[in-house]
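Revision sheet: structure tokens.
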Amino acid sequence: MPKPKIREVLREDLKQIAEIEKASFKDPYPLSLLGLLSTLSPEFFLVAEYSGRIVGYASALLERKNSAHLVSLAVHPDYRRLGVAKALMEALIEKLRARGVKEISLEVRVSNKAARELYKALGFREEGIIEAYYEDGENAITMRKTL
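Predicted:
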């Protein structure tokens, strides 16, 4: 499959993004929060699309002048293992680097081995654990990448 088209989010994308959230997470972000993220940091809220259909997204926020935090990364279940998440993360990292960001951090479920492996392949390192980070009580692993 060819690489997806990666672009900045548009308001009309939010409904499809919310569907991807619901299909991807136990505790999906509500549409209102996705809308807020898209207005707070539209240049760091990217979507991946095939033939006009949104198949994944990545959202990050600047924390300080030279630091960013990955808020969320999700790919529709039908499009996983096709390089969509990697393409989104590579594009996001390049945008952050061009903005002068020096590091990016994130949290990921301990049980989400596929995501942890992707982040490691992209150069993130595991730093610590936040106990009972998720609503269901699961721990999160904190990860960081120097750009």
